[in-house]
Design brief:
It is globular, with a radius of gyration of 16 Å. The longest helix has 14 residues, at 188-201. Helix 2 (42-54) packs parallel to helix 3 (68-74). It has one domain: Aldolase class I (TIM Barrel, Alpha-Beta Barrel), CATH 3.20.20. It is 41% helix and 18% strand. The chain has helices spanning 16-26, 42-54, 68-74, 88-94, 107-115, 139-149, 165-170, 180-183, 188-201; strands at 5-9, 32-35, 62-65, 78-81, 99-104, 120-124, 154-157, 175-178. It has an eight-stranded parallel β-barrel with strand order 1-2-3-4-5-6-7-8, surrounded by six helices. The termini are close together. It is built from nine helices and eight strands. By secondary structure, the protein is of the alpha/beta class. Keywords: Thiamine biosynthesis. One of its GO terms (molecular function) is thiamine-phosphate diphosphorylase activity. One of its GO terms (cellular component) is cytoplasm. InterPro entries: Aldolase_TIM (IPR013785), ThiamineP_synth_sf (IPR036206), ThiamineP_synth_TenI (IPR022998). Pathway: Cofactor biosynthesis; thiamine diphosphate biosynthesis.
């Protein structure tokens, strides 16, 4: 059985300096950090990665959302694609060295992403979360259906608390991805430690 992964995804609500300081503290306890800054330019994202590099955060732990150009230019681990991004097959052909994640919301999307060459999937939202207010969560039953439909790892995201980790991993998830639950917490390091312990136990 593969080690369960813990990914942290930037919220887009913090200034770069604050974000970098938090990641600098927590990166030893996580497997990847996703730079998901939809409102920032390619240059701004590039500079965030540079700051992380200066702070001794390994490039092998950095995943950039959507911006394949920045990911390739900086030599980071990979890129996270959405349904508005380039297709995984196109990215895989042009940038075979990048680890490619695809954000999916159904079994059909999951199967398509796998066929196109995605290395792993991000599926959610699993539970209720303020960032998806008013939207019905997909729950662990749909998570299980997605995990059973593909052979590549599936990471769960959305409203997951430490006490939910067991339910998520029992549904077949290869790990979890967290946003505000860690980055906007009073003590991000304490929260990361709590999630990591649960992922090690389960």
């Amino acid at each position: 059985m593969h080690r369960k992964e813990l990914h942290v995804v930037s919220t887009g609500k913090q200034d770069p300096e604050q974000l970098v300081k938090i990641i600098e503290k927590i990166h030893p306890f996580i497997d990847a950090v996703h730079i998901r800054e939809k409102e920032r330019t390619a240059l701004e994202v590039f500079k965030i990665v540079e700051s992380l590099e200066v702070s001794q955060v390994p490039l092998s732990k950095i995943i950039i959302n959507d911006r394949v150009d920045v990911a390739s230019a900086k030599g980071v681990e990979g890129v996270q694609l959405s349904n508005q991004s380039l297709p995984a097959a196109v990215v895989k052909k042009s940038f075979p060295h990048l680890r490619i994640g695809s954000s999916v919301h159904s079994v059909e999307e999951a199967r398509i992403a796998e066929m196109q060459g995605a290395d792993y999937l991000l599926f959610g939202h699993i539970f209720e979360t303020p960032s998806k207010a008013g939207m019905t969560p997909r729950g662990t039953s749909q998570l299980k259906a997605v995990c059973e439909a593909v052979t590549i790892p599936v990471l769960a995201i959305g409203g997951i608390k430490p006490e939910d980790v067991k339910r998520v991993t029992l549904a077949g998830a290869s790990g979890i991805a967290m946003m505000s639950g860690i980055l906007l917490a009073e003590s991000p390091l304490a929260e990361v430690t709590a999630y990591r312990q649960k992922l090690l136990i389960e």
